[in-house]
Amino acid sequence: MKILFLDQSGKPGGAELCLIDIAKPYGDRALVGLFADGSFKDLLQQNHIPVEVLATQAIQVRKESSLLQGFKSLGQLAPLITKVVKKAREYDLIYANTQKALVVGALASFFSRRPLVYHLHDILSQEHFSQTNLRIAVNLANRFASLVIANSQASKTAFVQAGGRPDIIEVVYNGFNPKIYQTDESDIKHLQQQLGLEGKFVVGHFSRLAPWKGQHILIDALAKCPHDVIAILVGDALFGEQDYVQKLHQQVSELGLENRVKFLGFRSDIPQLMAACDLVAHTSTSPEPFGRVIVEAMLCGKPVVAAKAGGAMELVEHGLNGFLVTPGKPQELARVIITCLQETEITATIANNAKTTASQRFDMTVINDYIAKLLVSKFRSLRHISSR
Ligand code: UDP
Ligand code: GLC
User: Fold this and answer.
1) Is 261 left (phi over 0), alpha (psi -120 to 50) or beta?
2) Percentage of residues of the chain with pLDDT beyond 90
3) Ligand 2 atom closest to Cα of 151?
4) Which strand (E) or helix (H) includes residue 360?
5) Consecutive H or E run containing 259
6) Which residues contact 363 (CB under 8 A, 6 or more apart)?
7) What tens digit of pLDDT does each residue of 231-283 get?
């Protein structure tokens, strides 16, 4: 089966990293069409996945855009849609990985008569999107998609609550290669030395810097912890959240935490950095659709504390394979950090449990096979698909 994947982003967020794992097995039978240039393209190339940047001008619609802004952008989209329609004719199906990719993919699917799959990486609720964007996404998916793949039960539930068709949606969790998360002890020691983490209790936060990812909650919690607890914030403002970055730095200096919070920016050595931590914190203040970082921490054998909402609640069972805290409550987070600092044995047992179960539950090979089966069973009946 030949697949045209579409993604609007030039930068590697979680949805894009997930797409790399899904597209890779298809080799030359796949093409990833991007609507922006950037480091995501480089990552795809490093993974030997064919990629083309199909739009040179950024699409102006944002998560909170109104209907009028949406209409204005349609004119802007016309050349892109024409290009995608032409490309799609060389492929058996269109696989839209983001919302703007859904808009373009839906129209291209109509004109090229190719089936459409929509991989839903978002919780389609008003907490995350404007009413207009919600309506557009749900209506296009209902009308044009043969299959919607939701990254969690939480994303599926929100889709159906927003009026999405329950008969076309399947939940498929992100898959991971557990081997990537096995790290070398000497590399970790070196990293700890380099970053000045030795002798500290290190809480790692691995996420793009954005208000709803809640880095500010961890900083507040840190101020309530003993002085040997420090934090590393790994990630960059991928989508222009510079104001938030400034606020975080201000918060750190107001609380006098300059020596206890390290901003490391975007990094590609996540498994090594996680291994150098004592605890990984996930602090999203709005429900997390899935939360790759939670699973990655588990695969590294590190204890994880996550905000109790959305997909995170499907990944973590409090006290069994991690810890859950109320979103937006630094005091509660501080209490868990202190428990992990003091109760090392039970915490290590929990982390070990998590490692074992996560490597089975989120095995990339199994998950990729499942996606392939879903695609084949949905499209077997469609005449233009050749059995390549
Ligand atoms: N990540 C990364 N480098 C960084 C920060 C994050 O590669 O500096 C990765 C992280 O390991 C995870 C992904 O980015 O795989 C973020 O995915 P997640 O689902 O946690 O959140 P999203 O940003 O997609 O909402
Ligand atoms: C999105 C979501 C995140 C999820 C990722 C992969 O970026 O925000 O929660 O883990 O997609 O599905």
Assistant:
1) beta
2) 90
3) 12
4) helix 344-361
5) none
6) 175, 176, 178
7) 999 999 988 899 999 999 999 999 999 999 999 999 999 999 999 999 999 99
Q: Which residue has a Cα nearest atom 21 of ligand 1?
A: 14
Phi-psi region of 48 (alpha: psi -120 to 50; beta: other; left: phi over 0): left
> 287-322, pLDDT tens digit by residue?
999 999 999 999 999 999 999 999 999 999 999 999
- Ligand number nearest CA of 289 is 2
Distance 21 CA to ligand 1 centre (A): 14
Give 197-220 pLDDT, tens digit per residue. 999 999 999 999 999 999 999 999
Helix axes 242-254, 215-222, angle to 10 degrees: 0
Ligand 1 pocket list (CB less than 6 A): 13-15, 17, 206-208, 234-235, 266-267, 270, 290-293, 296
Per-domain residue ranges of the chain: 3-175+364-386, 178-361
- 122 CA to middle of ligand 2, Å? 7
CA of 291 to the centre of ligand 2 (A): 6
State whether the beta carbon of 284 lies less than 6 angstroms from ligand 2.
no
Q: Of 151, 120, 153, 150, which Cα lies nearest the Cα of 137?
A: 120
Q: What is the architecture, at CATH level 2, of domain 3-175+364-386? A: 3-Layer(aba) Sandwich (3.40)
The letter for the amino acid at 1 is M
Identify the band that residue 83 occupies on the pLDDT scale cut at 50, 70 and 90.
Answer: very high
**One fold for 3-175+364-386 and 178-361:** yes
Query: What is the C-alpha to C-alpha distance for residues 129 and 212, in angstroms, rounded to an integer?
Result: 13
Q: Is the CB of 289 under 6 A from ligand 2?
A: yes
Residue with tokens 């290190």: 202
Element spanning 251, H or E? helix 242-254
d(CA 230, CA 79): 50
Q: Does ligand 2 come within 6 angstroms of the Cβ of 287?
A: no
264 Cβ neighbours under 8 A, 6+ residues apart: 195, 232, 233, 234, 273
Superfamily of domain 178-361: Glycogen Phosphorylase B; (3.40.50.2000)
Quote the pLDDT of residue 193: 97
Determine which of 175-179, 269-273, 378-382 has the lowest per-residue pLDDT on average: 378-382
Report the residue count for the chain.
388
